[in-house]
Design a protein that fits this description.
This protein is mainly α and 715 residues long. 67% of the residues lie in helices and 5% in strands.
């Protein structure tokens, strides 16, 4: 939500500024600001702060806040209603000026309170940003930025705005330092320690450890006292109750710290790529729960245990340990499934369960277990729909549905179930367009829309709906051009444009519109060159250049333009060779090199260099046979075999050519739909074998498929 933890000390605006505030002695450790509807929490926090005894081992330690004191007192708390006044009283303003910190109890009531906002504004004008501490009591931070959730906002307006060094509000968003008293988050005890750590300049972990040790010593004393006084039954009962309460508080404290580790700390470590530290976070959390009686764990504790398991699963998956990851995910999924059964309308529990369902399905997908992954992604989709039904205006859940559709559609494409995939991608497109219509302009949502258009266009193209695919790609390109005008340096948009123009070229060629196809291909190559100039060492851009040049060369060959094709093939093969030189173990780059040999062989055949075509064709077949993916291997081998067969036939080796054609025809998968380009390839191979291909040709004719490569080489 953009809320900083107490570890995130503000870099600017800290300390008193200006001559007037510097002249006022800071009599109070903090000024406690709150709405009077939160008075009960204010009572507890005020008393807890003033009665807190700093652990002796930390007293006197020098921090950025100065020497650590024994006590944090006094805390100023206004106990009077101010509704009748027009401005803050002079007493309040003087107390604010004389306070080192401002502590705000944040709730929807506080966010609406004129006086809470005025106190924040006064403190920031006098002291700046660095000593403002927020405590979330109810509601959600920055909810006002989400349409339909404005009433849930808990941060007052002045807290959400950054003030400059002169104490003036700016148009920049502030990131308040916050503790979270809400159930399932920090809770009161850990939240209190966060506030104290921030005020004293201590590390939270140090304070928690010292406090825990102090409580353990006290607990041992209580146990010893209870043993010594066993004869006094009433005294024993009192001590037992105290010990029970201490143990309960200690467990809450530990679980609060684990919640912090799995939440705020994880969010800080993930961008740094510190897998070792994330591993340690998960292991420490699980070690704690392994020692607990699982039957006695609260719902919140069970939820945190599931989060720890999910984190450990993600780390194992990142390291390639799929078995370890799957075991963790399944154990976590069992817990979150039970939570959903108990609380079917709790969106956070639905969200947590959906994460585990996704990861289990993703591992099935990685292992090629398509049916299992489809089942998991269907469940993920169902959970997303349930979240939307409960909170229809929550954009996080609506995005969840879009991603769910994308996952499911991708698996269906892998299974060659193109028409089913198209239906899913259409649903995804409808969802993202509804989200855009209900939201202010948002670049990420617009990118989601162009991606959904691209996925849907691919599914339509593969199922033979060429006109529909053309219309979708045209719309995608129009949107990308509009977005690029105001986001000129966004390489992600450029990459999407490159893919879209390559697809448009392919579709136009399929319709027989060769010149238009060549123009789109040239535009795609231009975008690819621009990306390469921006980042010459980026292998993703190099692959994009190779793909664009390869498709253009194939079209030029199909049109019989050998000189143009020769120049394009030279550029393509130079990129392919550089990729392979960089790392020969990358299978895809070897595949790109195989494509180079294949295009060179076709060019040699057009130029009458049949012996050269034969050598190149054999090299292409060798690389195709080495592809690890069965589907990719099947079609790469079919294309290579057809070209090698043509070279054998050109050199008079008819029987050998027939054998190679036979291998290519047999390579086709037994299940799943064929895309138009694949149907055309099968028809061409059957014709070369002298077999009937009329049914396939009728199918292509009904689609309007008129690619010059097919028309030129089908006989």
């Amino acid at each position: 939500m953009g809320v900083a933890t107490l570890f995130d000390r503000a870099k600017s605006g800290g300390g008193p500024r200006g001559n007037e505030s510097a002249r006022i002695a800071q009599r109070y450790w903090a000024f406690l600001s709150y709405s009077h509807s939160d008075a009960e929490t204010a009572d507890w926090l005020h008393e807890a702060l003033e009665q807190f005894n700093v652990p002796p081992a930390l007293v006197g330690k020098l921090t950025e806040m100065g020497p650590v004191p024994k006590r944090i007192t006094p805390i100023f708390r206004d106990r009077h209603e101010l509704a009748a006044a027009d401005d803050l009283s002079s007493e309040i303003e003087e107390a604010i000026a004389a306070s080192r910190f401002l502590i705000i109890l944040c709730s929807p009531a506080a966010a609406r309170s004129k006086w809470t906002n005025a106190e924040i504004d006064c403190f920031k004008r006098l002291h700046g940003e660095g000593h403002v501490l927020a405590v979330i009591v109810d509601g959600s931070p920055f909810a006002s930025e989400e349409p339909g959730r404005e009433a849930d906002e808990c941060f007052p307006p002045a807290l959400r705005v950054r003030y400059d060094r002169r104490g003036r509000p700016t148009d920049r968003r502030a990131e308040p330092i916050a503790a979270d008293f809400r159930e399932g988050h920090d809770g009161r005890r850990l939240g209190l320690l966060k506030i104290i750590a921030g005020m004293l300049g201590l590390r939270l972990d140090d304070l928690v450890q010292r406090e825990t040790q102090r409580r353990q010593r006290r607990l041992r004393w209580l146990v010893a006292a209870s043993l010594a006084g066993m004869a006094v039954t009433s005294g024993l009962a009192v001590v037992a109750i105290q010990a029970r309460d201490e143990a309960r508080d200690q467990r809450r404290e530990a679980e609060g710290l684990i919640g912090f580790m799995l939440g705020d700390l994880r969010e800080r470590l993930e961008p740094l790529g510190r897998l070792d530290l994330l591993d340690a976070v998960g292991e420490r959390a699980l070690a704690y729960y392994e020692k607990q009686d699982k039957g006695s764990l609260s719902d919140a504790a069970l939820g945190q245990r599931a989060k720890a398991l999910t984190l450990m699963g993600e780390m194992a998956n990142t390291r390639g340990d799929l078995n370890g990851a799957l075991a963790r995910y399944r154990e976590a999924m069992g817990t979150t499934a039970e939570a959903v059964r108990r609380y079917p309308n709790d969106t956070q529990k639905l969200f947590d369960h959906a994460q585990n369902v996704f990861w289990v399905g993703y591992i099935d997908f990685q292992r090629g277990q398509a049916e299992a992954s489809v089942e998991a992604f269907h469940e993920y989709q169902r959970l997303a729909n349930r979240m939307i039904a409960l909170e229809p205006k929550n954009p996080k859940f609506r995005l969840k549905r879009i991603y769910a559709d994308g996952n499911l559609g991708t698996v269906l494409i892998e299974q060659r179930r193109y028409r089913e995939a198209a239906s899913v991608f259409q649903s995804s497109l409808d969802a993202v367009e509804a989200l855009i219509a209900a939201s202010p302009p948002n670049l990420e949502y617009e990118k989601d829309r162009t991606n959904s258009l691209a996925y849907l266009a691919d599914a339509r193209e593969s199922s033979g709906q060429i006109d529909d695919a053309l219309a979708l790609r045209a719309r995608e390109i129009e949107l990308l051009e509009r977005l690029e005008k105001s986001n000129k340096d966004d390489t992600e948009l450029k990459r999407q444009e490159l893919t879209a123009r390559r697809a448009m070229s392919r579709l136009l060629a399929s319709r027989g519109q060769s010149e238009d196809a060549l123009r789109q291909s040239a535009l795609a190559s231009g975008v690819a060159d621009l990306l390469m100039q921006t980042e010459p060492q980026n292998t993703e851009w190099a692959q994009a250049v190779a793909a664009a040049e390869s498709e253009r060369a194939e079209l030029q060959l199909a049109l019989g333009r050998a000189p143009d094709a020769g120049a394009t093939i030279s550029r393509f093969c130079a990129v392919a060779d550089k990729l392979v030189e960089r790392d020969r173990t990358v299978t895809y780059w070897r595949t790109v090199q195989g494509r180079c040999y294949l295009l060179k062989a076709k060019l040699a055949l057009q130029q009458g260099a049949n012996a050269e075509a034969l050598t190149l064709g054999r090299q292409a077949v060798t690389i195709a046979r080495a592809q690890p993916s069965p589907i990719d291997r099947a079609f790469a081998l079919a294309w290579a075999d057809m070209t090698l067969g043509d070279a054998l036939r050109a050199t008079g080796q008819m029987d050998a050519a027939a054998g190679v054609y036979e291998e290519g025809a047999a390579a086709f998968p037994a299940h799943g739909e064929l895309a138009p380009r694949e149907i055309a390839l099968r028809a061409m191979l059957l014709r070369r074998l002298g077999r009937d291909a009329a049914q396939l040709e009728r199918q292509l004719s009904a689609m309007g498929y008129r690619h010059p490569n097919y028309l030129r080489r089908r006989g």
